[in-house]
Amino acid sequence: MGRMSPAYLPDLTWGSFPSAWQLDVPALLLVLVLGGLYGWGVVRLHRRGEHWPVARTAVFALLGLGTIVSATMSALAVYDEVLFWPAAVQNILLDLIAPLGLALGDPLALACRALPGRASVRVRRAMTGRFARVLAFPLVSSVLVLVSELCVYFTPYFETALRHGALHQLMYLQLLLVGSLFVLPVLTQEELLPRWCSHPVRAAMVFLDGLIDAVPGIVVMTSSTLVAGTWYAQHAPPWAPAVQADQQLGGGAMITIAELVGVPFLLVIFVQWVRAERTRTAALDRRLDAELVRGAAATAPAAAGPAGAAEPDLVRPWWENEGGVIGDRMRRERP
C-alpha cells in the first residue's frame, strides 16, 4: 500500500505492526536481483554435480534478503517518516543484520565457483585487489561503519533523505554496503584480511566492533539535539510520543540490536575457529602418519638384510666381537 497521511495512520501497536506493509519498488528489485543471481549460482553448481550447502542458501534468503524486505516494506517503513524509532530500527537492520545474513550465505565464494573461468578470475582479482583489501581492513571498515551512522544522524543527511525519496533509497544502499565491508571479510573472505588476523584476533575484533556499533545508539539516546527534530515535530501523528522520548526509544533500540547481533557473530567465529583447529589437527596427523610409514619402509630392508648376507654383529657371541687375545683364541677354538 502507499504512504498514508500522518493524521490517518493508526496507532502503532504490537497488534497492528504485522499487518502494516507497503511496496518499495527499488528495494524489491534489489532483493529480486540478489536472490536471482544467488539462485542461478546454486543451480549452476548442482547441474555440474557440485554441492552447495542448503543452510547457506536458507540463511542468505531468510536472514539476508528477508531482513532487507522487513526493513524497507514492513511497518518500520510505513512509520519511518512519522516516528524516529522505526527509522532507527530500520537503519540498524540494514547496517548490521542484513549484512550478517548475506555474508553467511557466502555469495562471493558462490560466484567464484559458479561463474565461467575468466569471469571467476576477474571476481577473485577484484576481491583480492589492493583497494578491496584497504576497504576490508578491520580498522578501516569499523571506522567507516561508525562514520556512516554518525553522518546519517548528526548531519542534515537524514532529514534531507526523509524529504527526498531517491536520497532515502541511496541511504538504504549505503548502510547495507558499508555494513557488509566488515562482515564479509571476517566471516567468509579470509584472503581479504592480513595474515595476522587469526580466529582469536577476529573474535576480539568482533567484540570491539560490537562496542563501536553501540556508540551511535548511545549518542542518539543521550543527545539533547533532536535528530531531524523539525521534520518529526511537523509529521508526528496525534497519538505519537514526544519527539525527545521517541528519539530516546530509537537510541535504546539501536543499542539493543547492536549488542544482540554480536552474540551470533561471535558464535559463528568460534565455530569456524573450532573447525579450523580440527582441520589443522587432522592434516598434522596425516602428515605424521605418512612420515612414520616412510620411515618404516626405509628401515625395513636394512633390518631384514639381503639373502645370504652375513649374520649381523648384534647377534654374534660376545667373544667374536671382542678384540685381543681372548677374542682370537675363542675364534680359533670354534668348530
UniProtKB/TrEMBL annotation:
Bilayer disposition of the protein: Multi-pass membrane protein
Ubl conjugation listed as a keyword: no
Membrane-spanning ranges: 20-42, 54-76, 96-115, 135-158, 170-187, 207-233, 253-274
Domain of life per record: Bacteria
One CC-aspect GO term: plasma membrane
First and last residue of the signal peptide: none
Keywords, sorted A to Z: Cell membrane, Membrane, Transmembrane, Transmembrane helix
InterPro entries (alphabetical): Caa3_assmbl_CtaG-rel
Localization terms from the record: Cell membrane
Chief location: membrane
Name under which the protein is recorded: Cytochrome c oxidase assembly protein
Organism: Streptomyces beijiangensis
